[in-house]
């Protein structure tokens, strides 16, 4: 986010001697279009503050609000999966998160899937779909082209290539992530990107070309990823954030036996000292326009405007 959008990292911390005891990471976004603000964290599914005590939580809150007043910011946005930080409020947006705990054998994992998920996995196998990892610079280019097709299908511009290249340079190439591709007759038809940390795996981005997508491809792709990380000893497989209105995506993730959790997004306006709407802006009249636009134009739009949207 620093490399791509020139956001400024801001960390709020407490320490007990030489060691950090609490931390809230955030990014300062300056935009003449959408307003100057602090977000924890932009383009992230969630960012749970690490707080060791109620006392330190209050210190972090005070530091955040003082900083925002000093910087004359418009608002602060927090995204947390377990708490409604910074205050227990009823004014928030909820998204969904799905977790699969990899504490079973491969057979037991498969048995826990819905019948529809099992059928789709088998169907893709019969279609001759092959799965492989490609964590190379060519792999990130292939992924980006599929991502552009997917975003147009959803009526949205893609993030700029520089964003994904930065992910490759800072995460994938350093062993903290993978890109899994599905191939049909040597043609890449779908791909999933994962981030890994400790014993946890996060599904972050997906892409596909549905015009040539065999039935069940995404189910098989996800199953191969689950098997891969289960074999490698990971304990938690996170399917990432799902907006509540995307019922089809929700059913897809639940079909793998995942547990459903809530992600809270709260937005606090500095001037009025009140919580304001933090509704998602991914759906609207713009979807029809973007879905009918050429990909070169969508790339240009994404390059110009995503820096204002984090």
UniProtKB/TrEMBL annotation:
Domain BioF2-like acetyltransferase: 112-246
Coiled-coil segments: none
Pfam family, one: Acetyltransf_6
Entry GO MF terms: aminoacyltransferase activity
Domain of life: Bacteria
SUPFAM superfamilies per the UniProt record, alphabetical: Acyl-CoA N-acyltransferases (Nat) (SSF55729)
Entry-linked InterPro entries: Acyl_CoA_acyltransferase, BioF2-like_GNAT_dom, FEMABX, PG_Glycine_Bridge_Synth
Alphabetized UniProt keyword annotations: Acyltransferase, Cell shape, Cell wall biogenesis/degradation, Peptidoglycan synthesis, Transferase
Family, as annotated: Belongs to the FemABX family.
PANTHER family: LIPID II:GLYCINE GLYCYLTRANSFERASE (PTHR36174:SF1)
Protein's recorded name: Peptidoglycan bridge formation glycyltransferase FemA/FemB family protein
Phylogenetic placement of the source organism: Bacteria, Pseudomonadati, Ignavibacteriota, Ignavibacteria, Ignavibacteriales
